[in-house]
Design goal:
alpha+beta; 40% strand; Pnp Oxidase, Chain A; homodimer; 10-stranded mixed sheet
């Protein structure tokens, strides 16, 4: 599930919330799974990974990560990303382009304080995406962190939120014979322009 | 379903085929849905979209598209992409980085000749991703193309395959408490290097 906080009232957001309700009614699983693609301008490489979208607050779409991870490096080097959701239950693809930045630290603190201690133990004990000799060492590090109750509620400075603000949406509904319905919204100077796209 | 033709025998391919079989046994839907992310070097923008992965032939992963589409422009401007599969039935994410190029035209001809006439009518009648006034015009264009039987088996030169050859794989298996198993394979001078990554 995604948590909604004072969500923006612009047309693409209304469209998004309508599709979200339809997907929930169809019991869409992993509805918060979103693929985030970035460009690492140092290595000139596109990279993608799934994250859990935790909040939409006004126009800010928020997920959490390790700030020393490769994706964090990519977001610093090129501050634009693409995101994509696919809700099979309603055969809908949502394509997004957005600007990305670090979430304010108060909000990251708030979210960290609400999480389970076991998730926090993992966030604290893992050097995300760094190589390691075996999976057993990962489990040991996690078990050791879990014993240190005093550190499990204080957010480490290397962990927090990323917020992205979409300036482009495409809602793609699959149809028979590839007659897919595609509607796009592009934001320019605070105004959203709508268009239909050929399939 | 993905069609396999003389698939490469390297370790990450063996791993891939093993996961594929497990997902098929779990009746994974849309198993061929893959998100392709590209960088448009003219507009300095990352973009993502789902496509259907049709073939893996040796080390070539093949899908089909309009060659005048925005993604085709991106692939020309920056010849590296990322791709991502998520098979919920086995809680597996497969992250790929690859080089991309146009599939040889004989293979595109072969695939076009095997497709249904209705899919070909859509491929011929649609100027993919170009704006249009309404969805009704799209349907009219499609119905008109469908009547011209003589053109429906000849591949137009603006439609064909894209092949990408992975040089990086990550197999990400979701675990409890975010203790995810991550294994990476990186290819350098024809040799794959294996590592475990921290979650």
């Amino acid at each position: 599930m995604i948590n909604f906080i004072d969500v923006c009232k612009d047309t693409p957001y209304i469209r998004f919330l309508d599709f979200y309700k339809r997907a929930i009614l169809k019991k869409q699983r992993n509805i918060e799974a979103i693929s985030i693609s970035s460009f690492n301008d140092n290595r000139k490489e596109v990279e993608s990974r799934y994250v859990n979208l935790k909040y939409i607050r006004d126009q800010e779409w928020i997920f959490f990560s390790n700030y020393h991870s490769p994706k964090s490096e990519s977001f610093s080097s090129h501050k634009q990303i693409s995101a994509i959701l696919f809700w099979e239950s309603i055969n809908l693809q949502i394509r997004i382009k957005a600007k990305i930045y670090k979430t304010d630290s108060d909000f990251s603190d708030y979210h960290f304080s609400k999480r389970s201690l076991s998730k926090n133990a993992l966030a604290i004990s893992s050097f995300q995406s760094k190589p390691i000799e075996s999976f057993d060492i990962i489990k040991d590090n996690f078990e050791n962190a879990l014993k240190k109750k005093e550190i499990l509620t204080k957010r480490p400075d290397y962990w927090g939120g990323f917020s992205f603000e979409p300036y482009y949406f495409e809602f793609w509904e699959g149809g028979s014979n590839r007659l897919n319905k595609r509607e796009a919204f592009l934001k320019d100077k605070k105004i959203w322009t709508h268009s239909y796209l050929q399939p």
